[in-house]
Amino acid sequence: MNFVQFLAILRARYKLALGVFGVIVLVALVLSLVWPKSYTASASVVIDASKPDPLAAVLYPGGMNPSVIATQIDVIQSDRVAFKVVRNLKLTENPQIREQWQDATKGEGSIEQWLGTVFQRALDVKPSRESNVVTVTYKAADPKFAAALANAFVQAYLETNIEMKVEPARLYSSFFDQRAKEARDVLEKAQSRLSEFQKEKGIIATDERLDVENARLTELSSQYVGLQSLASDSVSRQAAARGNGADRMQEVLNNPLIAGLKADQARLEAKLQELTAKLGDKNPQVIETRANLAELKTRIDSETVKVGSSLGIANSINQQRAGEIKAQLEAQRAKVLQMKAVRDDGAVLVRDVENAQRTYDQVMTRLNQSTMESLATQSNVSVLSQAVAPITPTSPRLTLNMAVAVFAGTLLAVALVIAMEMLDRRVRSAEDVAQAVALPILGVLPSPTARRLFGKATSANLMQQRLLGQASGK
395: which DSSP letter? Predict the structure, then answer.
């Protein structure tokens, strides 16, 4: 089918096409005028990604995640927000609304659920493409009611957003409060054990007594080493005193009495030699001097023996003192070891107290933080614009409806004409004849109404008549 054939079909069935077109346009006009008017009110909120949490001071890394916006849209459209709208507006207390609910549901179900479902049908939530703004629109027959419901959904969403943040914080606060009590009990028990231990042992784990006792142990050890050296030396001197070298001992040599006696001995020996040389061995003076010299030697030997005996006494004293110092050293060492063991036990108890204190401080920090979060009244969602009662209705749109009706009527009229032509095919042009008989056209007769329509035959019609006559003559 070419365009000429299409125009021929439309010209032949133009009444049907005009009728269908007119009916559709008329119906659209009537419906647009009769259809109840509805108004759409819009409110908007902004989810601020640059606004940090006042407690945690956390920002969204790298901008707002698209899933966050989608989640917030789902929250606005949730039953929880719808039920909060019903409760905030106290619609369940309205007798007319309860009557409508009874008529619609026969009293089955919850009136809040029924109202929430009704409100959700007229609610539309759309995000912005290039920003974090979310638009909440509500459509209703009353413009004031539409604005009120849009603002109510925004307010309910803000409250729900805060509740979703506060409720977990309250649960955490209750949990950490219980843990804080348990941690405090553990800390008190640990401190009590430490106090009892210190009282029982009579020490404080952090005092300086252990340092003092260590210093005393070191001093006793030094004394014991010194006395051991003295005792060893005393033993050696005592052994020397008992032998033949007693007169060469340092104590004997340094003894002033023995030194004086030896000096007298030297003078007497010199005098004896002199007298012996002068008077001879039998002289009474020589004999007397020799007797005095023997007596002096005896006295020197006696004093030397006394000095040797004093070394034995000194050795005994040194040995006794070494034994006493050794006993004191062992006792002090045992005391220091006991104090170290006590200190280690006390250090364990101190660490238990410190660990319990650290745990308690951490739990209290989390408790204070969760308590502050449970008292929060703000979030990162803010109202950007409030809904106002619209002046003009959003539906029905007469101009748009008529444009759609003209387009749809034209399309349907053309489709119906073509369908009717396909069901009842007729010859309306020379092309239709050529297609039907598959023969060339020799001429075309003018339409019987051609002169009446156009007033006179055209030159094309005259030419067609001549051609047709020539063909007949042949």
Answer: B
Residues β-bridged to residue 235: none
> Residue 131: helix, strand or coil by DSSP?
coil
What pLDDT does residue 152 have?
93
Q: Evaluate whether 289 touches 268 at the Cβ level (below 8 Å).
A: yes
Residues sharing a CB contact under 8 Å with residue 115, sequence separation 6 or more, in sequence order = 82, 86, 91, 92, 97, 101
- Give the whole-angstrom CA distance, residue 452 versus residue 454: 6
Distance CA 240, CA 85 (A): 117
Tokens of 370: 């969760």
User: Which residue is it, tokens 């008549």?
Assistant: 465
Q: How far apart are CA 69 and CA 44, in angstroms?
A: 13
* Spatial distance between the Cα atoms of 420 and 427, rounded to a whole number of angstroms: 14
DSSP state of 392: S
Distance between CA atoms of residues 91 and 284, nearest Å:
159
User: What is the rounded CA–CA span in Å between residue 9 and residue 148?
Assistant: 56
d(CA 273, CA 280): 10
> Angle CA(230)–CA(236)–CA(242) in degrees, nearest 5?
135
Asked if 198 and 292 touch (Cβ cutoff 8 Å), the reply is no
Element (H, E) at 44: strand 39-47
Structure tokens at 109: 């179900």
Averaged pLDDT in 10-residue chunks for the chain of 474 residues = 68 79 85 79 84 52 67 90 90 85 82 88 88 90 90 92 84 87 91 83 59 75 74 61 53 66 76 77 77 79 66 69 80 80 80 90 88 77 88 78 86 82 66 62 63 46 47 42
Q: How far is Cα 114 from Cα 234, in angstroms, rounded to an integer?
A: 115
Quote the pLDDT of residue 313: 66
From 289, 306, 303, 291, select the one nearest 261 (Cα to Cα).
Answer: 303
Query: What Å distances lie between residue 186 and 180, 191, 237, 262, 411, CA to CA?
Result: 10, 9, 68, 86, 85
Q: At what angle do helices 430-437 and 3-12 cross, to 10 degrees?
A: 110
Which of 387, 391, 395, 392 lies closest to 38, judged by CA? 395
Helix (H) or strand (E) holding 151: helix 143-201
**DSSP single-letter state for residue 38:** B
Tokens representing residue 323 in the block: 């034994």
Closest CA to 125 of 87, 181, 81: 81
Give me Rg for the CA atoms of the chain: 65
Nearest Cα residue to 171 out of 367, 379, 380, 378? 367
